[in-house]
């Protein structure tokens, strides 16, 4: 796998949705991604959509990881991905979301199809194992994640 100048595999931006104040999930994801060898910028909880877009422009990530614990991931995530995809140069940026995506429960796969249709690259719903996400993150290579940043 090609490495960046600092030895990292790729740059990953980690955040939550704007309504989610949980932080331990973000710290956990950051540590997991760094353990794999990725450079991570964790911009924290309750992050406004516009700040996430600005950080995509500033940090130029190969991947954006959005985590939800409060159960509003599907609702807030849909709005966020619509905003990201509307931004010139970010149309093809890989963006994934995972965690507790709804408050009504439901079987695995309840929210994924809608979030994928809205523009997320992958969805890791509440029933997915951390190994599923770890495998996805290990598969990333900057050469395979070419994103047009203008």
Number of helices: 5
SSE topology string = EHEHEHEHEH
Largest β-sheet summary: 5 strands, parallel
Helix content, binned percent: 25-40%
- How big is the Rg? 14 Å
Broad structural category: alpha/beta
Query: How many DSSP-defined strands?
Result: 5
**Strands in their spatial order, largest beta sheet:** 2-1-3-4-5
Mean pLDDT: 88
| Low-pLDDT sequence parts | 143-150
Gross morphology is globular
Characterize this entry briefly.
The protein is α/β, with parallel strands linked by helices. Helix content is 36%, strand content 17%.
Explain how this protein is built.
With 150 residues, the chain is α/β, with parallel strands linked by helices. It is built from five helices and five strands; from the N terminus they run βαβαβαβαβα. The chain has helices at 24-36, 49-59, 73-86, 112-118, 130-138, and strands at 11-16, 39-42, 63-68, 95-99, 122-125. The relative contact order is 0.19.
Topology record:
Elements: E1 11-16, H1 24-36, E2 39-42, H2 49-59, E3 63-68, H3 73-86, E4 95-99, H4 112-118, E5 122-125, H5 130-138
Parallel strand pairs: 1-2, 1-3, 3-4, 4-5
Supply database-style keywords.
150 residues, alpha/beta
């Amino acid at each position: 796998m090609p490495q960046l100048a600092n030895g990292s595999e790729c740059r990953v931006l980690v955040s939550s949705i704007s309504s989610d104040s949980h932080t331990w999930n973000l710290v956990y994801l950051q540590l997991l991604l760094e353990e794999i060898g990725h450079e991570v910028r964790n911009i924290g909880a309750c992050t406004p959509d516009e700040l996430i877009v600005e950080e995509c422009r500033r940090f130029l990530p190969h991947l954006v990881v959005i985590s939800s614990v409060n159960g509003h991931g599907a609702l807030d995530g849909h709005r966020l991905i619509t905003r990201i995809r509307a931004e010139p140069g970010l149309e093809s940026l890989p963006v994934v979301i995972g965690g507790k995506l709804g408050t009504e429960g439901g079987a695995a796969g309840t929210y994924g199809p809608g979030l994928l249709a809205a523009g997320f690259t992958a969805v890791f719903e509440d029933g997915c194992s951390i190994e599923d996400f770890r495998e996805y993150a290990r598969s990333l290579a900057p050469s395979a994640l070419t994103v047009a940043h203008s």
